[in-house]
Design brief:
Distance between the termini: 61 Å
Number of domains: 2
Helix content: 25-40%
CATH class of the largest domain: Alpha Beta
Order of helices and strands: HEEEHEEHEHEEEHE
CATH topology of the largest domain: Rossmann fold
Structural class: alpha+beta
Strand content: 25-35%
Mean pLDDT: 87
């Protein structure tokens, strides 16, 4: 009985291996069977996989996962499955450090709404809401510092525009890259298409 079970198991394992080999052969990349890999012995119950980038092996595994037979359960019922995770942080850090991709600015925010004083916070939020409602990424300054400091904050973050509202409700927006400051209406002002969103270029 035990021999028959082993024979049946080996046949099923061989069939699964042949099917997996055929799938791998039809796809780009290289697949290596490494019996020394051990991951999550407390919940992986079958095959485990690790992925490395050719030429960037020092990053280690950038995608890994495996077979779960009993990670999830409900009463006596167990739910098997296969899962994996991708090391986004590792990939992005290498993409940026090697300049495989560059961004037009470091944050998505296009406009910083400045605060005149501590009492202007609500009005600044209203301006930000109008701009955001039209798809313009906007932040409100954290505190009412001198305008010079608020502009420097925007510059350090890479935010191209600073919005000002005086005590009479008059609005102006300043392009801190050129120094140009013009009257503006939060209901219809918008930046150029190049400044509206972060642009990603790759090589």
């Amino acid at each position: 009985m035990r021999l028959a079970y082993r024979t049946s198991f080996l046949k099923r394992a061989s069939a699964s291996w042949n099917k997996s080999s055929s799938c791998c052969a039809a796809r780009p990349g290289k697949v290596v069977a490494d019996l020394s890999i051990a991951r999550g012995l407390d919940y992986y119950t079958g095959t485990v996989v690790e992925t490395v980038l050719v030429g960037h092996e020092q990053l280690g595994s950038i995608c890994s996962g495996g077979r779960y037979d009993a990670l999830a359960s409900k009463g006596n019922r167990k739910f098997p499955g296969v899962g994996l995770s991708i090391g986004v942080t590792r990939l992005v850090s290498r993409i940026l450090s090697q300049e495989f991709a560059t961004a037009s600015r470091s944050v998505p925010t296009a406009v910083l709404v400045a605060l005149n004083n501590d009492d202007s916070w609500s009005a600044a939020q209203d301006v930000a809401a109008q701009l955001r409602g039209r798809g313009i990424a906007t932040e409100v300054a954290a505190k009412a510092e001198k305008f010079g400091k608020q502009i420097k904050f925007a510059d350090r973050r890479g935010i191209p525009f600073v919005w000002f509202t005086d005590d009479d409700g008059k609005h102006q927006v300043k392009d801190i890259r050129t120094g140009e400051q013009v009257d503006a209406d939060p209901a219809n002002w918008e930046p150029s298409p190049e400044d509206l969103h972060v642009r990603i270029t790759t090589r």
